[in-house]
Amino acid sequence: MVVKNFIIIIFLIQISQFVYAQRTETAIDLAQEKSRLVLEVENDLLFQSDNYYTGGIAFSYTHKALKKTPAQLILNSKSSESRSFSGFGIQQRIFTPYSIVEPNSIENDRPYSAYLLASNFSVLINLEKKLKLSNEIGIGWMGEVARGKEFQTFIHEVVGSPIPIGWDNQLENTFLLDYQFRIEKGFFNDWTAEHFTPFASARIGTLTNRLHIGVMTRFGNKSRFLVDATMPSETKNHFIWEWVFEANLQGVFYDATLEGGLFNDDPNALSKDEFMSRQYQLRTGVNLYYKRCSLRYMVKFNSNNFITELIHRYGSINIGVSF
């Protein structure tokens, strides 16, 4: 009952909804605190739809004492100018067709699919070079074992939304291995580096294979570029806000949530000729910081992932606390 009430509260608190959530972005302000716990909820409730990416939930834990984790070994640096953090996370993501009240598989529409992924992530930051590297290693499962049907049905019963009735057509079970890498680099003078940050990222494995390139823009009452470990404690205790805008282009080569597992011949999967290999995502929102707490709210706009898909929008809320 306690767990059920907790889930209800979380989904009622979030008034809407990174499918690729850059959870390593939350590894901030660990210069004084040892640990950081983050909850991120993604959903399209704000726009009153269950189109395509219906929602997700993720937990992550970061600790300064974590050393030589698998992800951290990949980004190993002996430079005294670099700071590194590592942590672990778990996430669930749920996808549905445009309509969830059709019991049969719908031709030329996104199939039902869900996955669970446990991951180890690491962040390496060099303030002198205005450079941030992050990576994430994930292992998990897509299919019935991810319990997407049960979770979505439970939430819809709570909020009084239509019950999805097509989950019997979800994509088959498949084992997932996932690796993500991202680089952010500030250029030119300090002002430009603080407010305009180009980035590039790659994701490979049995979940998806894609490349991203884009730029992030930030403005607020205090610079939060990368991580400011030298920020005095009296400044850290002030209320800080940021407006964030990010645009990225993606080259997508494979997506298991659309095409099924690499080694499955799934009748409900989309064919390769229905797949969009060039996609984009826009996101905008606010970051709020006060003492050891942070709150991030983002609205995201995705281009179509397959030929007949419409542009999809959703929101995310990210709550973090350091201790």
Secondary-structure blueprint:
Elements: H1 2-13, E1 35-43, E2 52-63, H2 70-74, E3 82-96, E4 113-126, E5 131-142, H3 148-159, E6 174-185, H4 190-195, E7 196-205, E8 208-220, H5 233-236, E9 240-255, H6 256-259, E10 278-290, E11 293-302, E12 312-322
Antiparallel strand pairs: 1-2, 1-12, 2-3, 3-4, 4-5, 5-6, 6-7, 7-8, 8-9, 9-10, 10-11, 11-12
Quick structural gist:
This protein is mainly β and 323 residues long. The protein contains six helices and twelve strands. Strands 1-2-3-4-5-6-7-8-9-10-11-12 form a twelve-stranded antiparallel barrel.
So, the CATH homologous superfamily? Outer membrane protein
Q: Radius of gyration in whole Å, from Cα? A: 20 Å
User: Can you summarize the main beta sheet?
Assistant: 12 strands, antiparallel, barrel
CATH architecture: Beta Barrel
